[in-house]
Design a protein that fits this description.
2 copies of one chain form a homodimer. Chain A is an alpha+beta fold. Chain A has 11 helices and 17 strands.
Chain lengths: 366, 366
């Protein structure tokens, strides 16, 4: 696989498309983030990409992300100074400068936000994140496995108001961050999980920026050659994490139940097969797809990835953009090994989402 | 008037009773605060009381208060370490120690909270506050007249979680503080309006701790002598701020409309005269009493104080403890001159509470 050395403007489309896929239905469509990242790179230069193993053990690593409803993030269209400001507020609180920026999730808009922060602050960005996908809650990261606290956490808005949260548990920090974000108009910029280089080495999911780019490229290359979905699957099989992958279903959307609950987009999507006489598929989501069932039988389940793409172009389609009658392919892939560990399943396993089933790796499900 | 030199356990009952009167219907009944203050004084010794004019111009002054629903504050019964912790968090943020603690309001429970902070932190408490009464919103203080920002503001809870808020306007800080307080279970401890001694000298309402004690004493002395309400009125007439005072009504509660709206207790109280054939009185409140009307005519209006006391014992009765059939006297008094200035009326004049009337001093109303 190709590892990124700098993030240049011409990489953004591929990374954004790959991250839309890794968003596993959530994370928001990274268009606005891509524009902000493009603008930041043009103004401040392309940020250097640093591999986890090259980090100094004592380096100060700060994350960067946006929190809230993706559709609102789009509307508010932060200028980017609020994204960098969250990192600066956290630096001020901790009395040290960040040595590098770490993405929290590699799904959707939050693949782009740390690029904006890194470019604007003149810092390198780490080729890694805390899940190699997207998740709906702040504490659902591999860092939590290592007992790393989400706080102190800084939140900012486009008026450059700021909030610093310090709590005993990351779950509680998530709750405060959510009410503050709602008061900020349903979107905020955050920097949290301040940690040392050695902690990133132990707990981060590595190379995920490069992997997002590879995924985006494989879809694009498939359009120019054989077939976007085949090209995507071939690439996924070559990766260290997503190699257990398959098309779970090829169908059209026949029913969609979706509601906003506690700020999440929660619901079910039903699909009927386009060819043949196979049972229909039902996918449950809370921002991200959580479990795909066929005839009541689980085909893939969180934290493994369930992703939807256009059946012709391979374009990733987030759950919030799924429409009745749409023809899509549902792709399931394995998650990174650390994401499937017993400790990880206590943080973001199926039961944490109210699903009455244990995690089973996708390669063990027919 | 007698000026406090130390706050001793034996002063607390008088101060608390006086502050319940100055709460003007709001601020909560200071019982639990009094117990916390008693405990803190017994454990850490009586805090020294410092007069505003004796402050060093460059002294660092931090306020201390609780925010939220008084009934919840009672239920949660903070241990007191969270009260002091809010000040400590703000000290840490600003990189300086507090030289003295300043009460924000002299109404209800928030007369006691800064005593707890001062005792536990071994700091003097200033004989002053930001209004000489109680008000429902954080930005409704004389400090706002001087353009002093409410932020950085620290909030803490009984788990010692902490939040630091920094905003462009104190109004916005109030909004964030309110949602965070709700998430904390409807009560929080705060420290905000960090300022210098010279700013306290210019904008604080002076000697209000001593005045609260004097008011409490006068009611108690009246019970042992002539009449509690007459004794109270005689004392008020001797004070620098509350000297324009009168019994606005002597009646019984015939109707009460009260609802919780945005965390405030909002409503109307109707009174019928006990003797004679005079028109009934209607008092509107938002935590605190805002306007008292008789036959549609305004008898007293915010920021002047409208207070209710038991007609026999003179005991101050907060609006939330008013009951149908209760026999009370409604007392109106002037507010401190700075509270009646044009600049002040832009912050907490009648129109800021949605009342379609201008402020008229109580001495100009029949």
């Amino acid at each position: 696989m190709t590892k990124l050395k700098y993030i240049k403007s011409e990489n953004l489309e591929d990374i954004a498309r790959g991250a839309a896929f890794l968003g596993a239905g959530g994370g928001g469509y990274p268009l606005i983030g891509r524009l902000l990242a493009k603008q930041a790179i043009e103004e401040f230069g392309p940020p250097k990409v640093i591999q986890v193993d090259d980090l100094d053990d004592d380096a100060n690593i700060f994350s960067s992300a946006m929190l809230g409803a993706p559709s609102i993030m789009l509307e508010k269209a932060a200028g980017g100074d609020d994204i960098a400001y969250a990192v600066e507020i956290l630096e001020k609180r901790l009395g040290c400068r960040a040595d590098a920026i770490l993405p929290m999730e590699m799904g959707g808009i939050n693949s782009m936000v740390p690029i904006v922060a890194a470019a604007r602050l003149g810092l390198p960005i780490i080729d890694a994140d805390g899940m190699g996908r997207a998740f709906p809650e702040l504490d659902m990261v591999t860092f939590t496995i290592g007992g790393i606290s989400a706080t102190p956490m800084a939140l900012t808005n486009e008026h450059l108001d700021s909030i610093i949260i310090e709590t005993k548990t990351s779950k509680k920090a998530e709750q405060f961050a959510r009410v503050v974000t709602t008061e900020m108009g349903a979107a905020s910029c955050i920097s949290c999980y301040p940690m040392k280089g050695r902690q990133v080495k132990e707990y981060a999911v590595k190379e995920t920026l490069s992997l997002a780019m590879g995924i985006g490229q494989s879809i694009q290359q498939g359009r120019e050659g054989m077939n976007p979905v085949d090209s995507l699957l071939a690439y996924l099989r070559s990766t260290p994490y997503y190699n257990q992958c398959k098309v779970l279903f090829d169908g059209k959307v026949t029913d969609l139940k979706r509601e906003i609950s506690h700020g999440w987009s929660v619901g079910h999507c039903f699909l009927e097969a386009i060819e043949g006489d196979q049972p229909h598929m039902e996918i449950m989501f809370q921002n991200e797809y959580l479990v795909a069932r066929q005839d009541g039988k689980i085909r893939a389940i969180v934290p493994d990835l369930i992703c939807t793409v256009d059946r012709e172009t391979g374009e990733p389609i987030p759950a919030e953009q799924i429409r009745y009658g749409q023809r899509i392919k549902v792709i399931g892939t394995s998650a990174a090994p650390i994401m499937r560990s017993p400790e990880a399943l206590k943080i973001f396993g199926p039961r944490l989402f109210g699903i009455d089933a244990d995690f089973t790796p996708i390669e063990e499900l027919d």
